[in-house]
Write a structure and sequence with these properties.
352 residues, mainly beta, 4-stranded antiparallel sheet
């Protein structure tokens, strides 16, 4: 009887242990909350990477794509990244024609799901979500000779990607040097690189994936963001320009003494942070002149703003792109938080 009683207790404890194992909380995904750092790498070395930084950490998880895919390498500079319905899209620009690509990964593990290659993808520049399972990727197309002044030899295009089939379903003809895209309602406003010489702002219908309108600008339009009043802002030459997306009319033009560098919108969409003349400024969306307030007494290659913490992120790179750069974090007040070593040429952020 005593032996049977002891045996019952042992069985019960084993059962309880198994039940506890089955009902324990699931393991968190490796990249659940934090910021992806997009490292362009050295262009001649094709060694761009993606890093991950937890908000509570000062240590960067490096080259997370290869960590998740040991037999694969990105083989190019990382130009952009976004996520659509559980899938991440990494834009990769190789210095050899025909070798550019887009890696589609599982957003939680970064394991490769598919690869979009040339001729569907040539010189990818920016990627945005264009629907529940759709992405737009701006592409320069095959480039020419920069030294001869014919780098943007052909008009670019917008590659329409179906994330269900993981294929490029259409190419929307665009302008030379096509680059920045901003979604406003059911439309996408598309600009181009400042060096392209193009002065056209394109409007694309998200429902039909076709061009609705081409708007002439006095200088190259580079869409930045939509503010709290649902107005579109662009950088055009040395000015920040506010456009009413419904009427297409310019409502405000803030002209600076020189062209602002990196420009990002604040978390509440009430202001912009921008670099100019070796400093980082803040300016209200309601400003009537180009007089900003100094927030940080230094400049950065790239700015970012964390939508959760409101912290400002800036990148610093050595003169030679052979060593790791740094990500420097500040409170929105401009107070320094920390400086974190990244990989080669950090040049963009994606906050999750």
């Amino acid at each position: 009887m005593k032996k049977q009683w002891i045996k019952s207790i042992v069985v019960g404890l084993v059962a309880l242990s198994v039940w506890n194992c089955k009902t324990s909380d699931p393991e968190p995904t490796p990249y659940e909350s934090g910021v992806f750092i997009l490292n362009a790498g050295n262009f001649s070395s094709n060694n761009g990477t993606v890093s991950f930084l937890s908000r509570a950490s000062q240590t960067v998880a490096t080259n997370i794509f290869q960590t998740a895919n040991p037999s694969l390498v990105l083989s190019g500079g990382v130009q952009g990244y976004t996520e659509v319905n559980g899938k991440g899209l990494i834009l990769v620009d190789n210095n050899t024609a025909g070798q550019d690509k887009v890696e589609i990964v599982d957003y939680a593990t970064f394991k490769s799901l598919a690869t979009l290659k040339s001729p569907d993808i040539e010189n990818p520049r920016q990627v945005i979500q264009a629907g529940p399972n759709k992405a737009y990727i701006s592409c320069w197309d095959v480039s020419g000779d920069f030294s001869a002044g014919t780098f943007y030899k052909d008009p670019g295009y917008i590659a329409v990607v179906d994330l269900n089939t993981r294929t490029v379903t259409k190419k929307i003809a665009a302008v030379k040097g096509v680059e920045n895209m901003v979604v406003v309602g059911t439309e996408v406003f598309v600009g181009s690189n400042a060096y392209s010489g193009n002065k056209t702002l394109m409007v694309i219908d998200l429902n039909t994936d076709s061009v609705k309108e081409r708007i002439d600008f006095g200088s190259t339009p580079e869409p930045i963001a939509v503010d709290a009043n649902n107005k579109l802002w662009l950088r055009a030459g040395s000015a920040l320009v506010r456009v009413n997306p419904a009427t297409r009319l310019t409502e405000q033009r803030l002209t600076f003494s020189e062209t602002p560098g990196s420009v990002v919108i604040s978390t509440d969409k009430q202001a912009f942070y921008y670099t100019l003349g070796g400093k980082t400024y803040q300016i209200s969306i309601n400003a009537t002149n180009a007089t900003g307030t100094v927030v940080i007494s230094r400049s950065f290659s790239t700015l970012g703003v964390d939508p959760q913490t409101k912290r400002i992120y800036g990148t610093q790179n050595p003169l030679l792109y052979t060593q790791a750069g740094y990500v420097i974090r500040y409170e929105s007040s401009g107070a320094l938080v920390d400086s974190i070593k990244a990989e080669i040429a950090p040049s963009g952020f994606y906050f999750r």
